[in-house]
Specification:
The chain is mainly α and 677 residues long. The chain contains 26 helices and six strands. β3, α9 and β4 form a beta-alpha-beta unit. One of its GO terms (cellular component) is plasma membrane. Belongs to the sodium:neurotransmitter symporter (SNF) (TC 2.A.22) family.
């Protein structure tokens, strides 16, 4: 029976590992279970050193260790808080990923792309892009205990990726909170004796039809001027948003009522984040669980509406011909980014507060699975409602029922709730409170990523001071989206800052980690951290499939690029310039910081030599805690030595070596050779 190699830390270190999902609770961390019976005589030197009383003395004799620890920040890890328990981290990740994107953006993206035609590409993209990226970012944060900017000590040449992601995340959170403000408006409007969008008012459009009417009453209504429009749609567009038909003459001034709701939304987000993970972790339980209860209640009620089955069939029925449509694949990819919040720094931020040996593999699988389940649940709910709405309006083509965008959440859902026979006000309050909770969960993660990045840059500042300053800036920025032309700007910023920018930076991120730092280096880091071998699926996705797939989708988006529109109308040139500026400003961060890093080297090397040096890990790269860092360095040294011995012994060519790394074959060779000792 093979023995289990272990590291036993001194008593003072045990608390650091006590919460590890791979530990035994006694300060012992399990490593590889594939050692031979005589492993005690042939154990790696780094394990022997780790268990010896002179561990630090031995390690300090290693030149590589001395070099990499020369500028290690003092007490960097001790000053960083951790989650109170493992469940808080998991719940926070769920509340982050399961947000408005699942109930609002996923259904309208599926709606725009033919319903069932969208599901198959989405599920495929989940496995080849979503999960690999989610696991990567979770591992990056936990391995370094740093924010999305500081992790780029792995390759300082690409530090601008983290800064560019901050630009994208700031763009997203600025409009995201404005949607939360709309949910607050609807929550309080639902306490009226009659839902204000349930019936048409005298001064509304002539072709308005009451949302509260059932199908027979609706078809018998005497509206004859043009196509019928539900009262819920008129209420949202004309009463709440006061939306403009064009922004050629400007976007207008912020609505004072929505300004108050926006302020309240930012106050809530600030209060949740005031103590960092110590406060947000406690709220995460409610933020993660409550939405499921309400969503299931709404789904059960929606399925009982007339025409709901037609909507569900439209949602789940695959249209095989659309699998060859690149637009559907592009939409599936961009939706996945929005849904899982990958590429925005929030995943890295949350996992940076973990214990170093926490089982993130398990958590990544749970979160990505739950996120997909929630998207399908939200899709079933809204397409049931769309089927009912098409039935009531006498429209056979469900894809023509309502326009996409924010309207699906603030028109279709309220329209269905208005038809509820029993206390529609209660269902309305529950539904919009659910949207509020979903929005807060995601906004807390996004805004927390921004605050953490600034906190890492200015560690002497109090966290709550930064939270207050950045929340105030966020509120001022969000005023743009509650103007009559705000939804025009929202779609534009979402297109360039929240989608296009984040996506391009994610491609560069993949290239920097797996093609510059190296797939083998990264897999060794993960194996050291989580004590499990990186499987073939992850190696193939990280090293080949995911980057190439993302690049192919990006090339398609460039070839087929069309200027964004809102409700079928073109944007004014000035608005397009502003949107493009957000994208260019974010991308330029990569170039600016790369030049800054290269020119910062005062050596007399050539330009190429400086670039090569800047692309290599800095002395700050690696685990934060001192004892873990030293064990990792020794582990890396011995892993490289064993791999080099096999490479030279087998005399592999460069191409064969790359294939062996991609398929993890050198790990197999090392294990095979170790069993022969």
């Amino acid at each position: 029976m093979p023995e289990i190699a272990t590291i036993s830390y001194p008593e003072s270190k045990k608390n650091d590992e006590a919460n590890s999902s791979h530990g035994n609770g006694n300060g012992v961390v399990q490593l590889n279970a594939s050692q031979p019976e005589n492993a005690a005589q042939n154990r790696p030197e780094w394990l022997e050193l780790a268990e010896s009383s002179n561990f630090l003395c031995h390690v300090f004799q290693c030149p590589l260790v001395n070099q990499l620890n020369a500028s290690q920040p003092e007490n960097a890890a001790q000053n960083r808080p951790e989650w109170s328990n493992k469940l808080e981290f998991l719940m926070s990740c769920i509340s982050m990923s399961v947000g408005l994107g699942n109930v609002w953006r996923f259904p309208f993206t599926a709606y725009e792309n033919g319903g069932g035609a969208f599901l198959i590409p989405y599920l495929i993209v989940l496995f080849v892009i979503g999960r690999p990226l989610y696991y990567l970012e979770m591992a990056l944060g936990q391995f370094t205990s740093r924010s999305s900017v500081k992790i780029w000590e792995v390759s300082p040449l690409f530090k601008g990726i983290g800064i560019g992601q901050l630009v994208g995340t700031t763009s997203v959170v600025s409009y995201y909170v404005s949607l939360i403000a709309l949910t607050l408006h609807y929550i309080f409007a639902s306490f009226a004796s009659e839902l204000p969008w349930a019936t048409c008012k005298d001064n509304w459009a002539d072709n308005c039809v009451d949302s509260s009417l059932v199908v027979n009453e609706m078809r018998d209504s005497n509206s004859t001027s043009g196509q019928k429009v539900s009262s819920s749609q008129i209420y949202f567009l004309d009463i709440v948003l006061k939306e403009k038909d064009s922004i050629d003459d400007g976007i207008g001034a912020p609505d004072w009522k929505l300004t108050l709701w926006l302020l309240l939304a930012w106050v809530v987000i600030f209060l949740v984040l005031v103590r960092g993970v110590k406060s947000s972790g406690k709220v995460a339980y409610f933020l993660a669980i409550f939405p499921y209860v309400v969503l299931i209640i709404i789904l059960v009620r929606a399925l009982t509406l007339e025409g709901a089955v037609d909507g569900v069939i439209f949602f789940i029925k695959p249209q095989w011909g659309e699998l060859l449509n690149p637009k559907v694949w592009y939409s599936a990819t961009t939706q996945l980014f929005s849904s899982l919040s990958v590429g925005m720094g929030s995943i890295i931020m949350f996992s940076s507060y973990n214990n170093f040996h926490h089982n993130i593999y398990r958590d990544a699988m749970i979160v990505t699975t739950l996120d997909t389940f929630t998207s399908l649940l939200g899709g079933m709910t809204i397409f049931s409602i769309l089927g009912n709405l098409a039935h009531n309006l006498g429209i056979e083509d469900i894809s023509k029922v309502v326009k996409s965008g924010t309207g699906l959440a603030f028109i279709s859902y309220p329209d269905a709730i208005a038809k509820f026979d029993i206390v529609p006000q209660l269902f309305s309050v529950l539904f919009f409170f659910m949207l509020f909770v979903l929005g807060v969960g995601s906004a807390v993660a996004l805004h927390g990523a921004i605050i953490t990045a600034f906190w890492d840059a200015f560690p002497k500042r109090k966290y709550w001071h930064l939270a207050l300053i950045l929340s105030t800036i966020g509120f001022c920025t969000g005023l743009v989206y509650i103007t009559p032309g705000g939804q025009w700007i929202l779609d534009l910023v979402d297109h360039y800052g929240g989608t296009f920018l984040i996506y391009v930076l994610a491609i560069i991120e993949m290239v920097a980690i797996f093609w510059i730092y190296g797939l083998d280096n990264w897999c060794n880091d993960i194996e050291f951290m989580v004590q499990r071998r990186v499987g073939l699926y992850w190696r193939l996705c990280w090293g080949l499939i995911t980057p190439l797939f993302m690049i192919a989708v990006f090339i398609y988006s460039l070839v087929e690029y069309k200027w964004p529109t809102y409700s079928g109308q073109q944007y004014p040139g000035e608005a397009l310039i502003c949107g493009i500026f957000v994208f260019i400003f974010g991308i330029l961060q990569v170039l600016i910081w790369a030049v800054w890093t290269v020119t910062g080297h005062s050596t007399k090397e050539s330009v190429w030599g400086k670039i090569t040096k800047a692309a290599k890990p800095s002395s700050q790269w690696g685990p934060c805690t001192e004892h873990t860092r030293k064990a990792w360095l020794k582990y890396k040294e011995e892993a490289k030595s064993r791999r080099d011995d096999i490479i030279y012994a087998k005399n592999h060519s460069s191409i064969v070596r790359k294939l062996c790394v991609l398929f993890g074959m050198y790990d197999d060779f090392i294990r095979l050779d170790s069993t022969r000792l």
